[in-house]
């Protein structure tokens, strides 16, 4: 029964991540941090598929996870595959979502970041993840005494800083809002009693 709950959380978290990415961030060229942020930068500049880039960029991180924590590796690889798949499956529906729900870039950045952070936070709470930098953050949190959400927030800041330089100042501004919103959601979901 425990594994059923874990897989249900992986599906729910991955769905929230895909909705936040495809329907809130991509339309306004807003970035997230971590591997998704790197995939978004590559998508905005070169047009590569987000899910595929996530898969490719995750390989080195999964090698580290294989060495450090095999159980987390197995749980995270499932999360990464499911979230990448959902991002690709929902991408064609972006037009329909935007047709019925029109938000500006500020509101979209807040909602998108919050959805991604909630999806990630739920997965981390059940000792799984999407395998990106959140996987590294979870591993590092065992050695340094910082909340996983804070470590992710710092990593995300670096990635959106680079993305802001490569894409635009607006991208950077809205991406800061997105990662702060996501960091808050992740921190709330991963609070320990």
Describe this structure in words.
The chain is mainly α. It has one domain (3-190). Helices cover 79% and strands 0% of the residues. Helix 2 (34-46) packs antiparallel against helix 3, helix 3 (50-68) packs parallel to helix 7 (133-140) and helix 6 packs parallel to helix 9. The two termini are 23 Å apart.
Sum this structure up briefly.
The chain has 193 residues and is mainly α. Helices cover 79% and strands 0% of the residues.
- Beta fraction: under 5%
**Count of structural domains:** 1
Distinct helical segment count: 9
Average pLDDT reading = 87
Task: Describe how the helices and strands are arranged.
Layout (H helix, E strand, L loop, with lengths): L1 H24 L8 H13 L3 H19 L1 H21 L3 H7 L4 H21 L7 H8 L7 H19 L2 H21 L4
Helix pairs in contact: 1-4, 1-6, 2-3, 2-8, 3-4, 3-7, 6-9, 7-8, 8-9
